[in-house]
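Why should sequence recovery work at all? Because a backbone constrains its sequence more than one might expect. Tight turns favour small or flexible residues, buried strands favour hydrophobic ones, and helices have their own preferences. The token representation captures these environments compactly. In the example below, the structure is given first.
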């Protein structure tokens, strides 16, 4: 009786090898946390590795099908495609394919993707599948920051600005810009900023992970409408790197209109009350 059970079990393994096999999909190790930071006007390939240990039976060929699903409703200034959509195999396989990315003026966007591989047998039955999610984030920069090879000398690779223009409406207004240095490993660069006028007040704070926040405001209420410039640079004890100039447009708009209106309304209302009581006193006389 035990021999029959063992025989049936071995027969099941031979006839249906897919039950005891598996498929695995992984992204290239250079992509950390399944997140790709994308610069403007570049083309980039993200590599994916696909492995399986399906051993084919006689007259049975497996087919791996690759699928790209985009969860963002609208794609702006970016093209996405897979380097291949399917391939066939009859034994253990280690293969790779790429997500082709072509970025134009790709800024202020985040795209969520799903990359999926599905394995079918010769009768088009789904045997197994695996998938992973990928996020593409714009770094709002003209520079490309590739991952650093192991044992490479740490270096400064560039910076990202949240933007390089700001508008201040009046002397009570404030605005912020983030400056992030891209460097190898934990290599740290500090940032310093100066303006071309003492009428601008700059507050630069370190926000962690090589990122600084620059808050800009007007120094006093006597400043007239003007265009100002802020120069920044990244540095450490051995090196200095210039950062793109930031433009500040100060409009000096009037902020006292609403206050004057309220005061006028209060005066009018106060006069009405005085007139009312004056009429009453005159009647009593």
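From this structural description, the recovered sequence reads:
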């Amino acid at each position: 009786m035990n021999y029959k059970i063992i025989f049936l079990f071995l027969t099941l393994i031979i006839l249906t090898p897919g039950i005891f096999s598996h498929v695995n999909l992984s992204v290239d190790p250079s992509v950390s946390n399944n997140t790709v930071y994308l610069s403007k006007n570049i083309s980039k390939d993200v590599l994916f590795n696909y492995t399986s240990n399906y051993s084919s039976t006689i007259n049975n060929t497996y087919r791996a099908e690759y699928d790209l699903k985009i969860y963002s409703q609208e794609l702006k200034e970016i093209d996405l495609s897979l380097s291949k959509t399917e391939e066939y195999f009859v034994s253990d396989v280690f293969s790779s394919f790429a997500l082709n990315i072509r970025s134009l003026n790709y800024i202020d966007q985040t795209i969520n993707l799903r990359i999926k591989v599905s394995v079918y047998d010769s009768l088009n039955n789904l045997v197994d599948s695996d998938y992973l999610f990928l996020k593409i984030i714009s770094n709002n920069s003209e520079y490309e920051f590739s991952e650093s090879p192991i044992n490479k000398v740490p270096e400064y690779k560039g910076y990202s600005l949240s933007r390089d223009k700001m508008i201040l409406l009046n002397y009570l207004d404030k605005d912020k810009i983030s400056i992030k240095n891209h460097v190898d490993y934990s290599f740290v660069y500090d940032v310093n900023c100066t303006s071309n006028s003492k009428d601008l007040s700059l507050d630069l704070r370190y926000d962690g992970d090589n990122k600084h926040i620059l808050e800009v405001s007007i120094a006093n209420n006597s400043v007239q409408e003007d265009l100002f410039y802020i120069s920044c640079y990244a540095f450490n004890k051995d090196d200095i790197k210039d950062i793109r100039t930031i433009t500040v447009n100060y409009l000096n708009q009037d902020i006292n209109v609403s206050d004057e209106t309220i005061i006028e309304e209060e005066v009018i209302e106060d006069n009405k009350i005085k007139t009312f009581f004056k009429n009453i006193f005159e009647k009593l006389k």
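A few observations help interpret the result. The first helix runs from residue 2 to 15.
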